[in-house]
Amino acid sequence: MELLSLFDITFFLLVAFGTLVGIIFGAIPGMTATMAVAVCLPLTYALGLHNGLALLLGLYVGGISGGMVPAVLINIPGTPSSITTTFDGYPMAQKGEGEKALRICVIASVFGGLVSAAVLFLFAPLLADFSIKFSYVEKFLIILLALSVIASLSNSMLVGIFSGVIGVWLSLIGDYSTTDGGNGKTRLMFDFMEPYLFEGFSLLPVLIGIFGISTILLEAEKGIKSEVSGKSVKVSKDAGFSLSIFKGSLTNLTRSSFIGTFVGLLPGVGGSAASVLAYTQEKNLSRDSSQMGKGAPQGIMASESANNALTGGALIPLLSLGIPGDSTTAVLIGAFTLQGIQVGPLFIPENTETWYVMMTALVFANIVMFFLMFYAIKHIAKVVLVPKHILFPIIVMMCVVGAYAINYGIMFDVWTLLIFGVVGYLIQKVGLEVAPLIIGFILGSQAEVYFVKSLESAGTFTTFFTKSPIAVVLWLLILASVVFSVLMSRKNRAKQLQNIAS
Amino acid sequence: METGLSSLLSISVDFENSHLFFPTIVSWIMAVLFVIVLATKVAPFLVAVKKGERSLPILGEPMDAWRFFGTLALIAAYFYLMAVVGNLFPYTGYGFLIVSIVFVLLMSLMYMHKWTKKSLIIVATNAVVAPSLVWLILAKLFAITLP
Amino acid sequence: MMVSKKVMTGVGSAALITTMAMGSSLAVAQELQGNVRVVIGSTSTGADTYQNSSFVVDELAEHLDINMKVDAVGANAAFRTLDRDPRGNTLMIFHDYAYLGHLYGVEGFSDIFEKYAIGPAVSINPGNAYLVPKDSPYENLEDIIAAAGEGETIRVAIQPGGVSEIGFSALKNAIAIEHPGQEDNLVAVNTGSQSDKNQQLFDDQVDVINGSVQANEQFTRLPEDDQKAMRFVWLTASEETIEQAPEDGLGETSREQLLEYVEPNVNVTMGDDESFTFDKEFFFLYNKDMDPAIVEQIDEALAEIYEEGEIQETLKDSFFIPNFMPSDEAEAHLKEKAERYASIIENIK
Fold this sequence. Notes:
Shape of chain C: globular
Strand content of chain C: 15-25%
Strand order of the largest sheet of chain C: 2-1-3-10-4-11
Structural class of chain A: mainly alpha
Shape of chain A: globular
Number of helices of chain A: 22
Structural class of chain C: alpha/beta
Largest sheet of chain A: 2 strands, antiparallel
Number of helices of chain C: 14
Number of strands of chain C: 11
Strand content of chain A: under 5%
Strand order of the largest sheet of chain A: 1-2
Radius of gyration of chain C: 23 Å
Helix content of chain C: 40-55%
Largest interface: A-B, 67 and 64 residues
Order of helices and strands of chain A: HHHHHHHHHEEHHHHHHHHHHHHH
Oligomer: heterotrimer
């Protein structure tokens, strides 16, 4: 076959190497797939197009996957899209099931990655045409749907929604960016803050501040009592893991993978919305979701399959519209232009070879990721055995590196860590809820842009209902999600009353 | 009727002030929710505190003040000095490297409950090796800008 | 008074560090030394500013044999970083947005000609373009100006405040000159990224979009019945600039075809027979207090690099036009350019 002549051993080694480096980047809190790709971009110049893409796609897949490691083991999402992995992954790790949780993550990830690669391969141009049916209004409704998860995620619905609104409010601090079509003016702050807060708080430092630094503060308050963070680690050979955990989860995995692919496909709707949406849908639709948030494997499966499915999804608009689906693919555009290749609606028909090369790299990277992670987990999971007085300073140091490097060297991002570490500490002390707040923060600024732009162009609120059939469908989904969470909270309250009565 | 409703729903967003449009809405929602939370959650809680049934967060809880405030102070000093020292050696990452070594060492010592010779050696080695490794890989190998 | 040993060592090592730092700066006085960081006004590492900067900076680093690194920190952070460092360890590269932002009154922008020193110009991105749907009733820009003159509302998707808006402003100005009082028929629809602008066109929410040759060329080759098909009506670059582009142009659109959309074939008047053009130029910005010797050093080094001619090939391969101007020349040129555009923006207020 002619195609085979395109590949040599270097190609596969580069994919594998890229995946490995990507996993390491992803596993460091604050280092992301985007950064891994950006850092290695100059290398691709020397490598040539195909080998360069091999390396970059490996980095991409590895970077997205690596985020699961700190999410599960130390409750810090390594990348924003692994936030929902912390909800169930960390409780499992605390029960001594970290290794098991990570294995579930890996399998869910490879599933999501391969499903999205298949979708990319088979339906890219078709889906690109579908994606342009989503305009401001529809994108706003998708964000709203993802935000509706807040209601079902919280212990007390009122407090949860309040926390979520605080998160949205915090995300609006700074300028209404001209790159989003805004007028570039700042709001919600005083003039003296402008030099630091012009662009608002960056997402990643906020995330690792709230999750990482505040956890350390909470522990410090208690005096760093227990020596190690995992209570006990199950030492059985298979760590309590067997494939039977996945029994009955095919629907969940498939649904989450498609949600991930779909969100990736929509330019401008950030990747973290993918895992949040998948997580909610699992919570709403599964037969028994009572354990979700307390260490349920199904939560991890939803989250991880969705965030790995992003990879294939985000490549669809890149390769068939020339428009990046997320921040990492935005950097990939650079790789193409460096090599003098144009991406756009004619990319696939005009560069068939490159297209096949990319598909091969994507699939192979997922496989490499699976084997690297699955067999390394046993050793990685031992992180929880490191004494806290060694582990915590290192976590702080890594958080600093990540925060400083995320926007290519801005000191204020490091201070953001401390600010939100303290904020996160206070939030948990006064009984506000962290997860809704963070989800509000992640989605807030996108909600603003799409909301305001919808109104600007339509001039009436009715546009949200009458814009298109897609909008109507999204409204039904939002309604269902809200009704469901109200019912859930009623049921929970009834149960609590029953418990008290008996 | 119809026209009344549609004029009620119609809106024109002035671009010059559009940066305040959404924040105003969110601020109002937040304020209303805050009042409701105050009335339904905080007030009953404060009453319970007064009766002595529950205690205030942070203030009414036992706390390892030395480690807690020590952590805060140490982190603040770490961030501050990193930039200061880094400024002496522009864009080499030495600021990060030097200050991190000191920080990791001090924080480890603060968190350690029993000081033994063995554990001190481990802590000291870690304080030198971990930051150096990070610096070597990121600043040198990948040329990432560090303070 | 007792001074503890600890304080003494502290003071001692601080002094040592300072002397070391000072010493090294004295040794190779007034030239670039140590590690140099080049901050750029864009946060994207996939976009044109980063690419141009890294081409130039890589060459420069090799030529001067020092470590240089491009960091995509964004306009606001870049200006602030530059403010704080007069030593020459921080340099900045940006394009016309640097002064256009100020002219349009965008928050956070100040007058660069006053606050900073202008360094050498290095290259041009000739791609700034305006497009219409392939089945648009407007054949060319002349039709659009005429239609607006007859009272038709024409909506243009742009990103406010910068390179994307200047072409729009010039067009509005041209309508005001040719059809006085009708210029308000040209309406700006403020959008963000290229994907948002394209989307507005697909949705028939706008009649014209700002785009670029690089990002939109493939869309112009789609069949007319495709919802996504577009066609160019105007490239803002000057004829002289496009003439320097590779003969093959970009994708399947040759240089000759591109020249059809450039003045004098497309005429956007500025009054007095003068025609508006806009080249998006990339140039260095320095801290005002930086040693003039460094300015000279970089000017010389770049002159030699452009003399060798290799960088021109690299730039052209990526559809950029090499355009070296030493600092003085660049400053005079950009000042004059800014004044011209200031008058347009003033006219249509």
